[in-house]
Amino acid sequence: MEPGMREWRIQTFCLIILTAIAVAASLYWLRPVMIPLVLAVFFSLGLSLISDVLVRRLSCPRILAMIVTLLFASFLAFLLLALISGSVRQLAGQADAYQSSIDSMKIRMLERLEGPLEKFGVETEEVDKMLAVPTSAIGNVLLTTTNTILEIVKQSVLVLIFVFFLLIGRGSVRGPSVFRTEIEARVKRYLVTKAGASAATGFLVGFILSILDVQLAMVFGLAAFLLNFIPSVGSIIATLLPLPVVIIDPDLSFSVRILALVLPGAVQITIGNFVEPKILGDSLDLHPVAILSALIFWGMLWGIVGMFLAVPMTAILKILLERYSYTAPFAHVLAGKFDHLGL
């Protein structure tokens, strides 16, 4: 390779890195506006399937189809918020029972450890103070959860406004073919497949926990549905999420507590490792390391919302990068195709 060409490639590579840093800083600074907008873009892609059916199959006017689609989305959002709010009220009503259960478990544990602790010269009173749970702890959790619900409501209103205008303007936009075909097709396939798999996961987890008589079973099913959109990490969190309630519930036997962890974990593994890969195949064409890196990157920028959007946004970035010869090597890295780099 000629020295001039090598120097030009090095300069181009450095400019791309600097541009990426500047874009990341801008995305972090503009996250109050960008997060609702990007969420609205993905929601509009998913909801456009409903509006397209109403327009093409039922011959509805486009504006009527948009209104029906938005009403349907608002109804689903209202149901989810009502379920979460009801669960918070249920948790608040049983806060005293949970507190007494925690205290009794602590007493039993200290009684069993009293002998071994005395051998090491440790007094049980000191351990009791260390394990003391403030009576306001559950109240603080409830207050934080309530504030989170109010913040979600505010964000939902802004997202719905963005979705409305995106759906209205969707029929009049004639962008480049890459935006209208490949990106939209891949993202829609991912969203539909992931939503279906997540719905099945959430339903099965909620159904299993309900049969086992675990409190807040439907909330944990909803959490499994939402967390399933976060690859790898989400399924682990969803499996361990019922653990505190399962442990402190005095009405559950030991075998039921084990089943409350094993069965939802089996559902997560089966759907996540066998069903989803078979349906999705290589449509996203992203290496697992690239997916985990995207989770970390977008999680640092936009928090939990960024982790939800990490995979589809990285897939879109890969499609854009592979369109140009100068950026194609970056796309090959995201796909794990290092043989294309000549390494």
Structural description of this entry:
There is one protein chain. The chain is mostly helical and about 350 residues long. It has a domain at about 25-170. The chain contains 13 helices and no strands. It has helices at about 5-30, 30-55, 60-95, 95-120, 125-130, 135-170, 175-210, 215-225, 235-240, 245-250, 255-280, 290-320, 330-335. The mean pLDDT is about 75.
List the main descriptive attributes of the protein structure presented here:
343 residues; mainly alpha; 13 helices; globular
Q: Strand count, sense and closure of the main sheet?
A: none
Shape assignment: globular
Rg estimate, integer Å: 25 Å
**Percent helix range:** over 70%
H and E string:
HHHHHHHHHHHHH
**Average residue pLDDT:** 77
| Percentage beta strand | under 5%
Low-confidence stretches: none
What class, by secondary structure content?
mainly alpha
First-last Cα distance: 15 Å
Number of strands: 0
The tally of helices reads 13
